[in-house]
């Protein structure tokens, strides 16, 4: 189980995101986001080397607030050849320098997302060590969820989500993990019967709690 340290990070994750988010195709705000943390959860790396956090931030810089999901991979050393997936670096008060990557392109994060969707790992609380987050609901799909068999991770950003390709299931189709970057309240999942998805909660600017789909998988989404 990952240990959550009560310490500082300089710059903070929110500060790093304020610079990184406007460079994304799915970002809908101004060039200067006004962000606050509004939710999220964690997963454990079985090897204990990579921190995995699904961070939710709400941007209030525009006319209407927009809530984003960013899966983070925290690493103690930089990854070679994937500089374009780096969100930034930060000095951790206990662990020293950390390299923070977009988790949708990190093989350890993607492998644990697949394990979460298959029901073989449990979501962990964002701010407490060794604590299962019971508020995160996982619906496993009717078909087997594949494992990640090759690197680099292949992912494509859209206007509101990132699709991670994890293997062909039938000719002409690709198994896709869909990461909703722009979060919308509602318990909707894929419109295909038997699809798997992960739902969790976050807070609106007025303090109200809502739920929505963070991740989904059904194995037959068109690529």
Automatic annotation (TrEMBL):
<feature type="domain" description="Maltokinase N-terminal cap">
    <location>
        <begin position="20"/>
        <end position="106"/>
    </location>
</feature>
<dbReference type="InterPro" id="IPR040999">
    <property type="entry name" value="Mak_N_cap"/>
</dbReference>
<dbReference type="Pfam" id="PF18085">
    <property type="entry name" value="Mak_N_cap"/>
</dbReference>
<keyword id="KW-0547">Nucleotide-binding</keyword>
<protein>
    <submittedName>
        <fullName>1,4-alpha-glucan branching protein</fullName>
    </submittedName>
</protein>
<keyword id="KW-0808">Transferase</keyword>
<keyword id="KW-0067">ATP-binding</keyword>
<keyword id="KW-0418">Kinase</keyword>
